[in-house]
Fold:
Amino acid sequence: MCLETFGNFKEINDGVGLVTFMNYDLGFFDLDNQKIKPCEYPFAPEMV
Structure:
């Protein structure tokens, strides 16, 4: 799996894992469907 070359994969449920790069959570990867659901964008400007 190419996740090992650029980030980390930590399984949190059966068949679903969290993909991270450096200190940022990128999304949740479903191993069964081979799809990723992105997390909230960590660099988005804050609303005041």
In short: The first strand starts at residue 8 and ends at 13.
